[in-house]
Amino acid sequence: MRRTLVVPDIHERWDQLQHIEQEFFPDAGRIVMLGDFWDTFSTEKHPKELAEWVKEHLTDGEYCDPRIDILFGNHCVHYAFRYPSLCCTGYRIETQAIIRSTLTTEDWRKFKLYTTVGKFTVSHAGFHRRSQLASIPSAIDKAFAGKYHPLWGAGVARGGREKYGGPTWLDWRYEFK
Q: How far apart, in whole angstroms, are the C-alpha atoms of residue 176 and residue 142?
């Protein structure tokens, strides 16, 4: 059985993503990208390249790969939806313009909030036991309608207004005993 490759936050490290794709994608049976493609914390900035890479891997284009699941990370949410309160460190208005000129609403709708790998549920940040998985479809629909849903929010431990963070913002250091 071929293994599942789980790729965490890229944060605009374009060279690193290319290396991972060339070195590890060919042997993987499945690939789960955990989001956070944008908002670098260094001088290396590649928002256009990353947006194009994501688009190519989401659509039926030349590079589309059915083994790949692309998940929302908190650094994806603020570019996909128009929630001012969901902006996190590293957000740049110029990056938003670049990403929105590349990714359409239809592209964003192909992102997942979570996926399963065997018996495990996998998301960008995890799930608190009080998370409501059944509310995910309404959370996604509300987000595209410009309405807030608690599943997208950060917990109070991260400066948010929710008791516990959702699958893109959960803080394991503070929200679990």
A: 28
